[in-house]
Amino acid sequence: MNKFIKKHSQRGTSLIEVILYIALFSIIIFVVVDLLITSGSLKTESESQSGLLIDAGFITSRLNYEIRNSDTITTPVLAGPATTSLTLTSGSETHTFSLSGSNLLYQKTVGVTTTSANLNTDLTNVSNLSFQALGSVGGKLSVKINFALTDVKATQQGNQTKNYEIVVTTR
């Protein structure tokens, strides 16, 4: 009879075992869900920072290229106040950089034909744009450029804003 009771009691699971199993399973699920949520927010933040860096790199490269290859800088004037637009001439071409809403607008005019494009993507906004002619050393004009980039995609910390200041000298 003892053999029958021992075999019979070992076949099923007790209520305590079921409760322990559910508790352990709940803890594991909680940890996995928390990791997924954390990785999703980290992905959003890294995409935001990456977008800011890519746009800043492109904007500064384009400004650097156009200023270095320009013949004259029309706006801003030397020893004048900072302006919100930059106008350059290179041969028969006129290049203008200005703020249009929250975009950095680039316009290239050749004769009567004007082409324009935004230098920043839809993922960032440009603000606080200013250009200031610093001076001429040996016939080379330097321009100080300030602007701020803000990501459009809000993260847990809110929208990220980075301020940039560069100085470019003509060739």
Verbal overview:
Helix content is 37%, strand content 39%. With 171 residues, it is an alpha+beta fold. The chain has a five-stranded antiparallel β-sheet, covered by helices on one side. A hairpin with a 2-residue loop joins strand 6 (124-137) and strand 7 (140-151). The longest helix has 54 residues, at 15-68. The protein is rod-shaped.
Condensed summary:
The protein is α+β, with helices and mostly antiparallel strands. Helices cover 37% and strands 39% of the residues.
Q: What's the arrangement of secondary structure elements?
A:
Layout (H helix, E strand, L loop, with lengths): L1 H10 L3 H54 L3 E4 L9 E6 L2 E8 L2 E8 L2 E6 L5 E14 L2 E12 L9 E9 L2
Antiparallel strand pairs: 1-2, 2-3, 3-4, 4-5, 6-7, 7-8
Structural class: alpha+beta
Separation of the first and last Cα atoms: 104 Å
Share of residues in helices: 25-40%
Major sheet attributes: 5 strands, antiparallel
Query: How many strand units?
Result: 8
Regions with pLDDT < 50 over 5+ consecutive residues?
none
Listing every helix as H and every strand as E from the N terminus to the C terminus, the arrangement reads: HHEEEEEEEE
Arrangement of strands in the largest sheet: 1-2-3-4-5
Our Rg estimate from Cα atoms comes to: 31 Å
Tally of separate helices? 2
What is the approximate shape? rod-shaped
- Hey, roughly how much beta strand do the residues contain? 35-45%
Average pLDDT figure: 87
